[in-house]
Amino acid sequence: MGHAIFLLYPQMIYKTWLLVSLLILGNVLLLCFTIVTLEKRKLWRLPKKLGYYHVAYPQKYTFIIDQPEKCAEHKPFMVVIVPVAPGNFEARDAIRKTWGSEELVRDKAVLVLFLLGSRSGTDETLQNQLQKENQRYQDLLQSNFRDSYRNLTIKTMVMMEWLSTKCPQASYAVKVDADVLLNIKNLINMLVNLKTLQRNYITGLILSSNSVLRDPSSKFYLPHDVYPRSRYPPYPVGMCYIFSMDLPEKIVRVSLHIRPIFIEDAYLGMCLKRLGIIPKKPPNMHQFVVRPPPQYNRCLYSRLIAILTYNSTQLTSYWTDIHSSSTPC
Ligand SMILES: *[C@@H]1O[C@H](CO)[C@@H](O)[C@H](O)[C@H]1NC(C)=O
Ligand SMILES: *[C@@H]1O[C@H](CO)[C@@H](O)[C@H](O)[C@H]1NC(C)=O
């Protein structure tokens, strides 16, 4: 027996060395692959490499107008952020006079803030007006990236940054466009009826497998090499979405690994997918409406959470009408 082991010995050494060499080779290959991947990621960050379908994020954007103490003071249950163009005073006014004025619903504090980018060049008149507007209402957040339609993803991401650092007191956050009629009471009811405080929660009008548009004339066209899959991961339509406050920090963190495209809500879906979070359908999908019916109907409108309006005049008149009677139907 001892003899046989003695004879096998050289062969065993040979096998061991073969195994070790293979392992080393494998590790070297893995290392090379990692370095190449990391280099690629680094390149993504370089602004000069930015394609037409991508946006300049992450960058060290800062807030020119900020409300750093607002959440600590108000301790909101729900903070509502309205992305809006700097020059759109009309939309902000309409919201302040309508749904933005509802600060306390079912004992829950609601905080509404407007989020702006900056104008290119030195538009001092506009900037002075914004400073005055903010002195009066103290509800503006302005970041120093350039405000434009193609930069909406940056707006959403600086919103997530702001929420995660300046508003940890809130339980939920809402992103809502400036042309949306929001029914704060119905929204608070929806959240309160969830019974327990949700985590990893995001809801709204969920598109579960929206097609990537490949027609170059389409507004949301995205070429194959920018996004190779034919469908986006599930995401809530950008008009209005609601999320639990543990999400902003996670979304900011994961966004560092996913090159941002200009389609804000689809990009949010890409981040959520990477986090393994599936957007939830709201208790009642019909409460979110992107295409308003041809005729206004008080009974219908009073039951909704969010509906797109045509302009600020319409938003104001519908909100006033809904609230003109305690029995809208
Ligand atoms: C988006 O914002 C960045 C940073 O301010 C700016 O460099 C870029 O030109 C903007 N893009 C558009 C299309 O406005
Ligand atoms: C707002 O929209 C309504 C309905 O489409 C229209 O009749 C009205 O003229 C618009 N008002 C303004 C100021 O644009």
TrEMBL record:
Enzyme Commission number, as recorded: 2.4.1.-
The keyword Glycosyltransferase is assigned to this record: yes
Entry keywords, A to Z: Glycoprotein, Glycosyltransferase, Golgi apparatus, Lipid metabolism, Membrane, Signal-anchor, Transferase, Transmembrane, Transmembrane helix
One GO process term, biological-process aspect: protein O-linked glycosylation
Pathway membership: Protein modification; protein glycosylation
GO terms assigned for molecular function: N-acetyl-beta-D-glucosaminide beta-(1,3)-galactosyltransferase activity
Subcellular locations according to the entry: Golgi apparatus membrane
Transmembrane stretches, start-end: 17-38
GO cellular component: Golgi membrane
Topology in membrane: Single-pass type II membrane protein
Main localization of the protein described in the UniProt heading: Golgi
Similarity field: Belongs to the glycosyltransferase 31 family.
Protein name (record): Hexosyltransferase
The species this protein was found in: Triplophysa rosa
